Structures are given as C-alpha cells and as structure tokens.
Write the structure tokens for this entry.
Amino acid sequence: MLIKTAFSKFLNPAWWYKIAQLKLESYSKTQIISEVRYHLLHWEQEEGIIQQFQTKFLAKILNYAQKHCAYYQGILKNYQPFSNDFNHFYQLPLLDKDLIRNHFEDIVSDELLYLNHHWKSTSGSTSEPLTFPASNFAAEIDIEHLAFQYHQMGYKQGDKIAVFGSWAMEKSNDYQQNIFWETNPFKSDWHGQFHYFGAYLNEETFVTYINHLNKEKPVFLNGLPSFLHTLAMLIISKKQKLNYTIKAIRLTGENCYDWQIANIKEAFEAPVFLQYGHREIAIYAFSDPEKDKYKYYCSPYYGLTEVLDQDGRHVAEGQIGEIVVTGFFNYAMPFIRYRTNDLAIFGGKERGMVCLERLIGRNSDYVINQKNQKVFSCNLVLPLSLRHQVIHWQIIEREIGKIDINILPTDSWIDLNIEFLKKYFLEQYIIYVNQITIIKKEQLIRKKDSSKILLIVKK
C-alpha cells in the first residue's frame, strides 16, 4: 500500500509542479538574500533606490497575502501594489494581536505545509503571548541584518560574541557548580559563542561571571540593558574591571535608558550600539553612534515602518506615535500594518529611510503626575548624584500622582538619599513618593515568565 501511494504521488504532475515551484523559489530567495546583503553594505543609498526596493517587496508580500491568506483576499481585492504611491497602502486596516487571534486560520498562509518555517511566541509582557509561524527565509534576512550591525560595530573574523539574556537555566546542577552560561545553542555564530543567564547575577556570583569573561575574552557584549547594567554597576562599585578590551556593546530586547547607557559605557569603556526589533520579524532598527547615539534607523530592506497617532494618521517629525510595521519576508504569516504597542518620537526620514528620534517604550510605560499628565518611563531619571549608588530601581504606581520606589543599591548608598529623592520627584515630575524601600535583587518585580526587570509597575 505504501509503495502504491508513493508511486501514485511521483506520477502526479501537480506534485512535480509544486516541487519545481519550490526549487525555483529557493533559488529566488538566495538571490534576494544577496540583494539585501548588498544594500546593507551600502545602506546610505539614494532615496530612489530605497523606494524602488520597498515598492518591489511590499508588492510581493501583498500579492502573496492576497493569494494565500483568506483574511486579505477581500481587503486587498482592489489594491494596486506596484504603484510608487503608498497612499492606497496607508488606507489598509491595521492589524493587532486580538485580530490575529480571532482570524488566525485566515491570516496564516494556506501554503504553510510547503513553507520552511518555525514557531515563535511574543514575550507577552503587556498581554497574552501570541504564538505564530515564522518563515525560515525571514529569519535568514534577520541574520543578514545582525551580521551587518556587527560589521558596523567593527567585527573581524574570529571575534567572540557574548549574549546576555533572560533565559532560565535548564540544568540545576550547573547552578550548583557556579556555571551561569551555556555555549551557543544556535547554528549562527552571530548569536554568540556564550549565552549568560541574567537571573543569577548578584554580588555573590559577580566574580564567577567576570572570571569566565576574562577567560574566554568575548570582545562584543550583546543583550538586555538591565542585565548589562547590573554587571556594569557591580564592576564600578567593586572596582574590578575586565582584563581585556571590549570592542563594542549592543543593547537590545527591552527599553534602554540614558542612565543605563552612561554607566555601561563607563564600566566597559566601549561604544554602545542600540537595536530595536520584534519576534514578528517586521522591523529591524539600529543606531549609529557616530551620528546620533539615540536615533534609530529602520532598515528599509526588512520592512516598512510607520509612526501613527491614535486616529491612525502619521505623526509629524518630533511627535510621539505608535510604531506600526509591515514585514517583507514572513510569508508564513504576513504582518501587514501591524501595531507593535510601542511608542517612539518620529525622527523624519533620511534618504527615504524612516528614523525614530528615540524609543519611548510600551504605550503603558508611564505614570500619571499630580497634574494628571503622563510622564513616560524614558523621561524618568534619577539625580546624577545617585548614578553610581543605584543598580536598579522600580516605580510602583498605586494611584494618580503617588508612587512607591524600590531601590537596589550599591555599597555607596546612604539613607540620606531617601528624603532627597522624594523631594526630587516632587519638584522634577510633580509626583509624590509615599515610600522608598531598599530591596534585594530577587525582590525586583519582573515581566511574566522572564528575568526582564520592569521599571514601572501598575498596581
């Protein structure tokens, strides 16, 4: 029976047609990867070249969605994707997580069984995680961007990369043996030779981390700002620096604040590069410290980026809006005009490339002061005099205009800072501080199922 079934499949012209089609698509994808690599190596190109690329690949993903995603067949019925005028595209409805959950089967490609893909989940930091299929092809485009950024940072063949993340350790005996890292579980060297676990870094384990870094000497440090800031503050407070030179540091994975960057640069004596992206593989934004250390350039070779107000209109340069993205290469589940729930200041365009003046964070990352005004997390800064006295701090908002603050201090902290900090918040932000509590690292409130530390906690 098995032989008969196999024989009938091989005699089926439709089967051979599909195999030939997939082979042709595989060759085409190899050409596209080469094209993206070329554009990234010459990323400061003329606006016309960027617009030509975006027009071409926006048309491809929209045509594919129209043919293979039932949800988009009606929406895109009368769409003319090959026009250089994007105004029609900007009339398409926005996509969000709830809409995807309600229409999941219709948004997923009907060719999913034929597509090389894997499954991913969002972090679920502000809502329930979203699990979705991601094209392996889109992941390859992502790696091309990762390689581009490392070369931008000064990478040379043979350089080691260390990644500092929020994963949990699977082997408890490793913890008992003071092993707080693992070798790279991924195929790509761009994902680092070593992955360090952030949840286990404290004053007692600090020396173990430093000793391993000094032994292996990774010259690029990549990871969560909160993790690397903890390491940086321990280096500063313990006066125990690394015994080799760091080329550059790449901060990604969570909102990054000015005070974190300053301390990380001081501790490691290395330039800091920023990266912003999503597991949905629809945006890759990077900084260029030689131009503006806080400005993000959204790669036009990855997707199309918009910054919209509450009514869905694009904001003017210098204004705050929500980042909305369209990925070019995730055919398994196209994310078209997808709401990220992240806010940013729109920085205009450079040669047609969308810039984010700075990231504000999640649209829920704010507290309300006593004048009923929103104060976003990126604008909440401790006094400069306390910069070396605090490893982490956390705001607990219990009612409008009133907060509690948790402080994870360094050895230099003094109790006189408490009254000074209360006065500072009232004068600087018009926010009354009920109490300030000195805590241990394990008492910090984290995101659900993660070691990522929250700056603002709403009660």
Notes: DSSP finds twelve helices and 20 strands in the chain. The two ends are 63 Å apart (CA to CA).
